[in-house]
Each structure stands twice: as C-alpha cells, then as structure tokens.
C-alpha cells in the first residue's frame, strides 16, 4: 500500500490498524506507505476502510491469505505464475508474467479506453445536434428535409459505426500516466467537452445553413428547394448534393478534432500518422463519400459534382 510522497511517517505495523473505524477516523492512511507484518484481516480492514473513505483501492497478492483483500478491493491483481488458484479466482486481473510493469500497461490502456469513449461521445453528440438542427430548419422554413432518408442512413453509418471504429483504435500515449486518476463520481462528459460540443455544433450549423441558403447564388447553380421529389436525379439536385457532401466532410474533419480532449492540446495532428487504422477508416469514408456523390445517382438522389463544386 502506498500513498503520498511527502509523508513524515511512512512505515506502520499491524497494531495501528485495529478496525475499519480506526482507519477512517485516525487518518493514518494519508501518510502511510508501508504496512508491515500485516495479517490477512489487517489487509482486509485497511481496504474496507479506504473504500468507505471514498478511495479507489487496488490490491496485489499471490497467496490464499490475500484472497479476502483481493476480492474486497475495487481492482484485485494476482500473479499468474506464483499466485494460487484461490488468489486468481478472487482477483479481477491476473498478471500472466508476474511482471509489475504489466500493471502500468493496464492502467495506461484502461485510461486510454475511457478517453476513447469520451472522444466518440463528443463526436456523436456534435454530429447529432447538427443533423437535428439542419433537419428542423429545412422542415420548418423550407417545408422539406434537405437530407433524404438514404443520405441519413449513410450519415448514421459514418457517425455511429465507422467513427467509433476509428476513435476506438487510438493508441495510448505516455501523457495519460502523468495526470491524476479520475474520481469515482467523475462525469463522463466534462464542462470542457460540453464547450467543445456546443462550439463545434454551432460552427457546423452556420456552415450548413450558409450552404443551404447561399450556395445557389455563389456557385450560380439551381436551388434544390421545392424540387419535385419524383425526379430522382439531375442537375436540380446539385445544391442538395453539395450540402450532403459538406455535412459528411465536416464530420470527417471533426473526427480528427475530437482526438484531443484537453484544451491545452492544440495540435490535433499530433501522432496522427501513428495510427494506421484511423487513417485507413478515414480514407475509406472519404473515398466512399466521393463514390456515393459521383455514382449514387437516383438511388441516393445525388448529382455528380464538378471540381469547383467539390472545392467549394
């Protein structure tokens, strides 16, 4: 058991841990670094007291006498080679190589998984807000949705499936080990995440509304508003095709943005080329989008775009 490094008294014997009440009321766990000559009951009492005091406790052990503390801890870690079967059954993690460096790897990957979940949630909520607002504006003011059901299905595939795969493959970096652990009651969506979600959603909505209302005059193309829906393809759908294309590309770029959750991490391309799966999925999404736009035709209700329209 180890605690803060500024401790004046670091080593205690088992006599000081008489009960869970003692652990909670004396505050002895604050300076403690070593509990010597501890009986199995002492270990169990210490773990119980720490948990009731609101701490998150991890315990390592290899013998039968460690089993109660291993089972009581939030995370029990047993030895795969030297550990007994009872200790293994009581633990949540088994170190197959009995190497404590593996614990560091487990912590690093565990924090990385939590971060990746946050990244996907941030991406998902942003894209959903943009889609809802765009659809509402279209239905409320134009009496039609600028995006048809098939396009929404492709967007859903990009937003839900492919984006989750891309963000889930993000490997951990050494920085995750330098920050303090998350609290037990930590919100999965932080205030910083809400700020990023709202600001990115507002940015996307402004771009999309601008394309919806200004693209025909800027690019000198026919507006797709109130076009007869029975006409499944043709130049009259160029306007909505550009809108659909812009929406998807905004989500692809946002996939890159959400890779960094901390406001101090301004370089979103840091380690970008170290994750080949992220690059492969991003490349597939981009190429698939071009194919859908150029060859989707009446099935997707898209019209092929010129180089100028793509560049726009």
Q: Give the strand tally.
A: 5
Write the H/E string, N to C.
EHEHEHEHEHHHHHHH
In DSSP terms (H or I, runs of 4 or more residues), the helix count works out at 11
Strand order, biggest sheet? Answer: 3-4-5
Rg, alpha carbons: 28 Å
- Arithmetic mean pLDDT: 82
**Spans of at least 5 consecutive residues with low confidence:** 1-9, 16-21
The major pleated sheet works out as: 3 strands, parallel
Give the DSSP E fraction (strand runs of 2 or more residues). 5-15%
> Termini, distance in Å?
60 Å
Structural class assignment: mainly alpha
Measured as a percent range, the helix fraction is 55-70%
| Gross geometry | elongated
Detailed description of the structure:
This protein has helices spanning 20-26, 40-52, 67-72, 85-90, 101-142, 149-168, 191-219, 238-257, 276-295, 297-300, 307-311; strands at 11-13, 34-36, 58-61, 75-79, 93-95. With 312 residues, it is mainly alpha-helical. The strands form 2 sheets. Strands 3-4-5 form a 3-stranded parallel sheet. It has a two-stranded parallel ribbon with strand order 1-2. Helix 1 packs across helix 2 (40-52) and helix 5 crosses helix 7 (191-219). The longest helix has 42 residues, at 101-142.
What is the strand and helix layout of this fold?
Elements: E1 11-13, H1 20-26, E2 34-36, H2 40-52, E3 58-61, H3 67-72, E4 75-79, H4 85-90, E5 93-95, H5 101-142, H6 149-168, H7 191-219, H8 238-257, H9 276-295, H10 297-300, H11 307-311
Parallel strand pairs: 1-2, 3-4, 4-5
Helix pairs in contact: 1-2, 5-6, 5-7, 6-8, 6-9, 7-8, 8-9
């Amino acid at each position: 058991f180890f605690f803060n490094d500024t401790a004046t008294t670091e080593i205690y014997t088992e006599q000081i841990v008489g009960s869970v009440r003692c652990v909670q009321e004396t505050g002895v766990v604050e300076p403690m670094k070593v509990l010597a000559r501890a009986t199995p009951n002492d270990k169990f009492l210490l773990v119980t007291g720490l948990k009731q005091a609101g701490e998150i406790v991890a315990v390592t052990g290899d013998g039968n006498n460690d089993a109660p503390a291993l089972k009581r801890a939030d995370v029990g870690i047993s030895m795969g080679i030297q550990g007994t079967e009872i200790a293994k059954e009581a633990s949540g993690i088994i170190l197959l190589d009995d190497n404590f460096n593996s614990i560091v790897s487990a912590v690093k990957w565990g924090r990385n998984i939590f971060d990746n979940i946050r990244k996907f949630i941030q991406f998902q909520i942003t894209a959903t807000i943009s889609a809802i607002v765009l659809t509402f504006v279209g239905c409320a003011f134009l009496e039609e949705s600028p995006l048809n059901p098939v396009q929404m299905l492709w967007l859903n595939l990009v937003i839900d499936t492919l984006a989750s795969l891309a963000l889930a493959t993000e490997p951990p970096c050494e920085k995750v080990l330098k920050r303090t652990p998350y609290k037990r009651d930590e919100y999965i969506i932080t205030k910083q995440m809400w700020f990023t979600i709202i600001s990115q959603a507002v940015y996307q909505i402004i771009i999309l509304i601008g394309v919806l209302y200004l693209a025909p005059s800027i690019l000198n193309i026919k507006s797709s508003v109130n076009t007869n829906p029975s006409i499944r393809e043709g130049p009259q759908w160029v306007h909505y095709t550009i809108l659909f294309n812009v929406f998807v590309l905004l989500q692809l770029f946002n996939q890159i943005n959400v890779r960094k959750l901390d406001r101090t991490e301004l370089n979103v391309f840091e380690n970008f080329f170290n994750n080949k799966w992220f690059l492969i999925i991003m490349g597939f999404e981009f190429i698939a989008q071009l194919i859908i736009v150029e060859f989707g035709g009446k099935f997707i209700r898209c019209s092929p775009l010129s180089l100028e329209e793509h560049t726009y």
